[in-house]
Design a protein that fits this description.
Blueprint lengths: L1 E4 L9 E5 L7 H17 L2 E8 L2 H5 L11 H11 L3 E6 L2 H4 L3 H12 L2 E7 L12 H4 L5 E5 L3 E2 L2 E2 L2 H9 L3 H8 L4 E7 L4 H4 L5 E4 L8 E7 L3 E8 L11 E6 L11 E11 L7 H22 L1
Parallel strand pairs: 1-4, 2-3, 2-5, 3-4, 5-6
Antiparallel strand pairs: 7-8, 9-10, 9-14, 10-13, 11-12, 11-14, 12-13
Helix pairs in contact: 7-8
């Protein structure tokens, strides 16, 4: 899959395109992607996605923006896995936000991306002050199609529904809506080595933004196996302003993982994060968490 960023040059070919934030790349997004890929094959076009970084709601109101389900790297990996040929990541800044709907169509869709066929959701809005809608896209020299909502188990699939399930600690419901395991990936960074001192060494992944999950979880890490993980602000000792992902791997006794890129899949929430009266109480709690995680894995793993 070809990924491009930033400013667009004049398109050299034609594409079948869909547009959106695609947070989580859930079953509804996957239906959009599969429809675009099928149309591209039929019409001999390049299957393409236009997405944004940062999320527009983060640009307009960062403090009130919803927690991201998926980091950009993971989102792109899921699109590549689905078979998409090209993704353009538009930088959502003041200039982009102020583009009138007409200029967005002419400069971005027609000249920049060479859209020949376009698929959007029924409630798609675009352009400055969100003045553009489905009717604005019609009769522009390309075909436009509206995608109906996707239902799964009687529930409308949306990023909001996935996010709500994750925030409630309902990992299994979130996974059903996503159509794939919920995961967080990132690079292992140096920490305070507290986990090692307590007898539970951890791989620490710094998160730029708070995720929709918090607490203690049973996890499985690609290439390294199962473990127990904490997503939180470490209230007992060395607190942090943005949640940190700390993973204790059960079966990995190799060298340090500093600098490694890990993909952590969440299997079950064990409990919420708590503040303890000192390190002995914290050590006992971690031991209980590890034991409960191992029991879960023996039963359901």
């Amino acid at each position: 899959m070809v990924v491009t960023h930033g400013s667009l040059q004049r398109a050299r070919g034609r594409c079948a395109l869909t547009i959106g934030n695609f947070d989580g790349v859930h079953r509804g997004h996957r239906a959009l992607i599969e429809r675009v890929i099928a149309k591209a094959r039929e019409a001999k076009l390049t299957s393409s996605v236009l997405t944004f970084e940062p999320h527009p709601r983060e640009f307009f109101a960062r403090d009130q923006a919803p927690a991201r389900i998926t980091r950009l790297r993971d989102k792109l990996a899921l699109m590549a896995e689905a078979g998409m040929q090209r993704v353009h990541v538009a930088r959502f800044d003041a200039r982009f936000a102020s583009l009138p709907a007409e200029r967005f169509i002419d400069e971005v869709l027609v000249r920049g991306l060479g859209v020949h066929w376009l698929l959007v959701g029924r409630d798609f809005r675009f352009g400055a002050r969100r003045t553009g809608d489905f009717s604005t896209l019609q009769n522009r020299g390309f075909t436009v199609e509206a995608m109906p909502d996707v239902q799964f188990d009687g529930v409308r699939v949306s990023s909001s529904a996935v996010r709500a399930a994750l925030q409630a600690g309902d990992i299994s419901s979130a996974e059903r809506l996503l159509g794939h395991p919920y995961a967080i990936s990132g690079r292992v960074a140096h920490g305070a080595k507290l986990g090692r001192a307590l007898g539970f060494a951890t791989a620490n992944i710094v998160l730029r933004r708070a995720p929709p999950v918090s607490g203690i979880f049973v996890v499985d890490v690609d290439r390294y196996g199962p473990g127990v993980a904490s997503v939180g602000k470490r209230p007992t000792v060395n607190p942090v302003p943005i949640p940190l992902l700390e993973v204790h791997l059960f079966d990995y006794g190799g060298a340090d993982l500093y600098g490694e890129h890990l993909r952590v899949r969440f299997l079950k929430k064990l409990r919420d994060e708590q503040k303890y009266d000192g390190l002995p109480a914290l050590r006992d709690a971690i031991a209980r968490d590890a034991r409960q995680a191992r029991e879960y894995l023996l039963t359901y793993g």
